[in-house]
UniProtKB/TrEMBL annotation:
Transmembrane segments: none annotated. One of its GO terms (cellular component) is cytoplasm. Residues 9-125 form the Gfo/Idh/MocA-like oxidoreductase N-terminal domain. GO terms for molecular function: nucleotide binding; oxidoreductase activity. GO terms for biological process: NADPH regeneration. The lineage of its organism: Eukaryota, Fungi, Dikarya, Ascomycota, Saccharomycotina. This is Gfo/Idh/MocA-like oxidoreductase N-terminal domain-containing protein. Residues 148-347 form the Gfo/Idh/MocA-like oxidoreductase C-terminal domain.
């Protein structure tokens, strides 16, 4: 692309664990992206991060507004407790500064809806960092496999695992006492829902039951549900990592009128696999075809996508828009509402 190698300077807003352990190593892989400024509510944490990121101490800012309005950076990478995402977006639009924000999009649907309306009414590129939307498997399933299995009629999506006592994010106060709906259900669940909806389209309604297993989760942490997609496809969605000892299992089975496909991306596999067979009945079943997926570095891909949008000043390039991320959080919101109504079907809100 034209200008793709232009060096972009970015501001890191929120310099906690994820900024250090994931964003900084990702940016190191992208020579055209340079951390040039940072801000944290606790200045000492910003200073520690600046040292690791080789950011000049003069570029450590003491307010969110000051770092967003500075002309010394090209875009903002925000890793804030999500209840502050709306404030960051307002400032980004005020100062015409592209911004990407860690998921989920907001603490609740009202805030998320406001972000969508702000984003729709501005030309400033705004991206929500839901990196699972950049999985290579999504395009393989959509373009290469689903056309072979006929009309998609149903699915089973399951991502379950054991509680991890050593989860370093448990010490994060905003996760222990979540202001965002669903707590860990939305924090990790939006990834799962990004994958599901990128493959099969948007969810129309959900009937679900949630439950809290771990006190440390701060709120309900498992979800068992039935979904109806806007296409009419029906299926089940099960998510939670708060169970007792059990294997981590992540699989997505899609059933069609002329076959089926199993996408297994359980972490104990050498590579994720897509296995499909075709045929309208057991008597007509083909042999199974197995595709091993050499998966993307999805963190690299999401920053490459946003860098292109910033370089070209074209928000249409952004892959995970505010509206798209809103839908994923709205599914969680509908699931929680359904559970409060003993599993009644609840329509997913529109922004």
């Amino acid at each position: 692309m034209s200008g793709e190698n232009k060096n972009l300077k970015l501001a890191i807003v929120g310099t906690g664990i994820f900024a250090t352990d994931k964003h900084l190593p990702t940016l190191d892989k992208l020579p055209n992206l340079t951390p040039a400024a940072c801000y944290n509510r606790t200045k000492a944490k910003a200073e520690t991060f600046a040292s690791k990121a080789k950011i000049d101490p003069s570029q450590i800012y003491e307010s969110l507004e000051d770092i967003i309005k500075t002309d010394s950076v090209d875009f903002v990478d925000a890793l804030l407790p999500v209840q502050f995402n709306l404030d960051a977006v307002k400032l980004a639009i005020k100062y015409n500064k592209p911004i990407c924000l860690e998921k989920p999009i907001a603490a609740n649907l009202d805030q998320a809806k406001e972000i969508v309306h702000l984003a729709n009414g501005s030309d400033v590129p705004i991206s929500i960092l839901e990196n699972w939307s950049y999985l290579k498997a999504i395009e393989i399933l959509k373009k290469d496999v689903l056309p072979k299995i006929g009309e998609v009629v149903s699915f089973t999506y399951k991502s379950t695992g054991a509680w991890n006592d050593n989860n370093k994010y448990l010490a994060t106060s905003w996760r222990q006492n979540p202001e965002h709906i669903g707590g860990f259900l939305s924090d990790g669940g939006v990834h799962q829902l990004a994958l599901l909806t990128d493959v099969l389209g948007e969810v129309e309604s959900i009937s679900g039951l949630t439950k809290q297993i771990r006190e440390e989760s701060g709120t309900d942490d498992i979800l068992f549900s039935t979904l109806k997609m806007k296409t009419g496809t029906i299926g089940t969605f099960t998510y939670g990592s708060s169970f007792g000892a059990t294997d981590k299992s992540t699989s997505f089975i899609i059933y069609g009128t002329n076959g089926s496909v199993v996408y297994d991306f359980s972490p104990d596999l050498p590579k994720p696999t897509i296995t499909y067979q075709t045929g309208a009945s057991s008597q007509q079943a083909s042999k199974k075809t197995v595709i091993e997926v050499d998966e993307n570095d999805t963190f690299v891909e999401e920053f490459k996508n946003f860098a292109e949008a910033v370089t070209k000043n074209d928000k249409s390039i952004v892959h995970v828009t505010a509206a798209k991320a809103y839908h994923h959080l709205a599914i969680v919101g509908a699931a929680l509402e359904s559970s409060a109504k003993n599993g009644d079907s609840v329509k997913v809100e529109q922004p």
